[in-house]
UniProtKB/TrEMBL annotation, chain A:
Record localization: Cell membrane
Any Pfam family: ABC_tran
Protein family per UniProt: Belongs to the ABC transporter superfamily.
Keyword Transport: yes
Protein name: Arginine ABC transporter ATP-binding protein
Domain ABC transporter: 4-239
Record-linked SMART domains: AAA
Organism: Azorhizobium oxalatiphilum
Coiled coil: none
GO molecular function: ABC-type amino acid transporter activity; ATP binding; ATP hydrolysis activity
TrEMBL record, chain B:
Pfam families xrefs: BPD_transp_1
Principal location: membrane
Gene Ontology MF terms in the entry: transmembrane transporter activity
Stated name of the protein: Glutamate/aspartate import permease protein GltK
Subunit-level organization: The complex is composed of two ATP-binding proteins (GltL), two transmembrane proteins (GltJ and GltK) and a solute-binding protein (GltI).
Taxonomic placement: Bacteria, Pseudomonadati, Pseudomonadota, Alphaproteobacteria, Hyphomicrobiales
Keyword RNA-binding in record: no
Amino acid sequence: MSMISMRNVSKWYGPQFQVLKDCSVEVEKGEVIVVCGPSGSGKSTLIKTVNALETIQNGEIVVDGVTVNASKTNLPKLRARVGMVFQHFELFPHLSIIQNLCLGQEKVLGRGHDEAVAKAEALLKRVGLSAHAQKFPGQLSGGQQQRVAIARALVMDPVCMLFDEPTSALDPEMITEVLDVMVELAREGMTMMVVTHEMGFARKVAHRVVFMDQGEIVEDALKEDFFGTPRSERARNFLSKILSH
Amino acid sequence: MFSDFDFGVILRSLPYLFKEGMTFTLTLTAVATVGGVILGTLIAMIRLSSLPVLPKIAAGYVNVMRALPLVLVIFLFYFLMPYIGQWALRADQPIQVGALSSTIITFTLFEAAYFSEIMRAGIQSIPRGQVAAGYAIGLTYRQVMSYVVLPQAFRNMLPVIFTQTIVLFQDTSLVYVLSITDFLGAASKIAQRDGRLAEMYLFAAAVYFLISFTASMLVKRLQRRLAVAR
């Protein structure tokens, strides 16, 4: 059974504008999927439907056996098991780094404070930011904030991770430190769905690449096939633009 | 021009002015601020919610309160509250509401309208990504509000809340219409008893100015500190 299963997902903004057109993707346990495509192609919307930050009007999404778009689904419980990393980090600026990492553990998982702190410290160490536990998000660089955001998702022991353009708001010199953490995570066998333009990352760790354009999944191919011989004209076009420099 | 003035009257009445008058003024300011912020936050959350009907009622309440002069509201509540109480508690007679409880309730309800507008702006100033991040780690709506949105909204709005409190501190003097002894009321009573109107009102003005001005200076400093912290 797939970890994430999206079948014929459609979404409209208003009656006219269809952002997602009949999208189907399967992500197996331990698989890393990179979703790419031109801006406005619906890739961010697609990934946000997985933990129901965006609702859908048609189709079905199942995450680890739980139907996301069923009305009886306990969404907070589901979301706690799906880690998410945002483009703009979205750390809570009024809380220290350690408090950022403890909030979900204590309020959602009901862990005790000491247990939560221990777990938070372990993950901060893993992303190389132990020294910053008591600081506030505003005192860290973008790259550091994004690593904290990854740690904040990981403290919840998620079954899979969603990344929504995790490096596109970062200065070039900070992209590597974030990608390094993600590569390590991928190699440890985490199930990941990553919206990104970092084709280097895709080549290195992705199993499959999903290419979207105008709300449609144009191509869903093994990494080797996608970079070797993309079948569609649109994907070839996109690749030539993004890889030309 | 001050040759006929007797400033001794001020000295003699200090204990009365402050122990009776200022204590009441500060208590009313504090209670109405705390109550107004809590109630105002609730109203703001209702207005921003997608509940049926309730947001419209909340908006109506705020608009009515903001469109009426405070003195009028003080009067209206004082005269109407016994009947509202009677209706609410299904009692046989109008409920006795003293001038004191009446003013406290009035000021809280009145200020809630203003604080709700402040908190509404504060809540709306929090980026939607923050809310999404709260949901993403599994928080419920209530938890996102209490741990993510409201603390930030409150912190961002703190200088405005304090500024509104300073205005409220001055407005509490309107309780004179119900013959309650606040600071100005106390000064006014002494002034009329001893025929020392100019002295007492000048002194009262000096005290209001000193407190309000110092408070606004402190708010400005707070504002600068918050700007740095953000």
